[in-house]
chorismate mutase (Pontibacter locisalis), 661 residues
Amino acid sequence: MKVGVIGLGLIGGSMALDLQQRDFAKKIVGTDNNPDHIDIAKKAGIIQEEGSLAEIAQTCDLIILATPVDVAPGILLELLSQVNEETVILDVGSTKEHICRAVAKHPRRSQFVACHPIAGTENTGPGAAQKKLFDHKVSIICNSNDSDASAVKKAEALFAALKMESVHMEAREHDRHIAYVSHLSHITSFALGLTVLNIEKDEKSIFNLAGSGFASTVRLAKSSPDMWAPIFSQNASHVSAALGAYIEQLMLFKETIDEGLMTETYDMISTANQISRILDGIELKNRQKSFVKSEFNSGEVKIAPISDWVSNLQRPLVISGPCSAETEEQVMQTCQQLAATGKVDVLRAGIWKPRTRPNNFEGVGTIGLEWLKKAKEATGLMTAVEVANKQHVEEALKHGVDILWIGARTTVNPFSVQEIADALQDVDVPVLIKNPINADLELWLGAIERISGAGITKLGAIHRGFAKYGETKYRNAPQWQLPIELKRRLPDLPMICDPSHICGNRELIAEVSQQAMDLNYTGLIIESHINPDKALSDAKQQVVPERLAQIINELVLRDGYSGKVITDDTLQALREQVDQYDSEILTIISQRMQVVESIGQYKKENNLTILQTSRWNDILNHSFAKGEKLGLSKDFIEKYLKAVHQESINHQSAVMNQLKN
């Protein structure tokens, strides 16, 4: 097979070396926009001969496009217009959605396979090329349904020759995952490098003090800006989301350090230590294969009606009890007082409160299940506990616990969720899944999907808020749009609000509970204690049973929970007005994008960059001022403008990468 390589850097050069040595390619023809790279590649035996784009297109059986992502779409379009009918082109860039969109309407789209072999170093150029770079790594093939089956097989054969495992996924999901596992690490390294350079002007001091930890962390900061600046631009929305989640974690570290909360800092570090399971390659194959299913299909999750597992259900479903089971007397008195209110459906108590360090309250353990069992017998109410591993599941079920829930720290770890799912095989028990600590809807969905995969149909979600960024009145910011989106994707999923953890203080619980009811939540899980101020955990967010009853009694329950609302003429007329405004807004945005494309054409013809920072800042400042006068929040204006701005960049990028007529 004759293989063409366009872009003779680390990736293209390394692929060429192994494809020759392993007899996949009889001859490799290459080209690069840097003549020096071509000379080096020839001398190093990376390519046998140089060829122009036209020559490579017309003579090669398979073409590897290994250029920076900003120029790849234009070259790809040019190649597709010239290749023979049997020639296959694959690219190896680390962003996929942009290039797939750029060639979506090309008549020879089926001859292109969008790929991303996940391997590399911080070094660049043909001199960095090395044999066996890809051995035992993973290559992602995106949107394979848009490629001819024979083309996909040829790409898979190439990666097999490189000793890589091929997995398939959608381009958008690829870009989102890669933003976290690759792009974010590079930005972090760049930022660390800039931080140290700005603070430590004396390079000699850096050299003398820097250890191997600093060197390994900042290593990626040596990566080429020609390669990475376009990647960040093309994957801006996903990179921004990853950065947001990362900044939240940084702020949590800053908060615990500023307040001298060494135990919490220790716990965060210990939790982060679990990343070693990934770095050590444990379950790597299963983890990568799970990417194939990451384009979530709500039809795969079967959800039984909540009436199947809660008899005589009245809205709201109320789950209540102490944050932690502390003593038998405390559990029994709290549960009996809650039952006496007539407002509680399910009793809860924290049994396991794991802490990394030994001198903190870690929960009473299994003995607490005995107390909860006695409370169940005394009150006739169902019981629920949090489980974080297989042993917890087994102990809870052995003691007759009716409902299990998975906590926020567990939801964030797919390994732990899968362990729980495995323990639930052939078990008929309701399971509630709390949202992960960070605002990541896909993690939440993934946990639900894993539990569903164990055959559990009695499923529900608990919204307990997300790690906050900046100062808010909440312990964990509600970010209502995320549970709303989860409910949109899984309409039958019962949604339960946890105002105790959202608020972090008892004064706000009533307010958040009402908000949850206004948003059609199924129920509430509220922590209650006979003497909250002396509780061994989360004292500020627990209420006495009498206050719990008062909160429930004062809730206003509005029509529409069933999803069927009888609309009168007034409401219908107002909705029609909203629909009309929405239609007009979309039309105006479409017209705006047509103007944006004209701007992109002008910038292309005059060799101007797409992003004009000063112009963007002017737009933001002007819009903030106008939005305030119009009664629109700054937060909304900023989110709206960022979305429109990114769409504008996408349209201009498409214009920039079009071939000249």
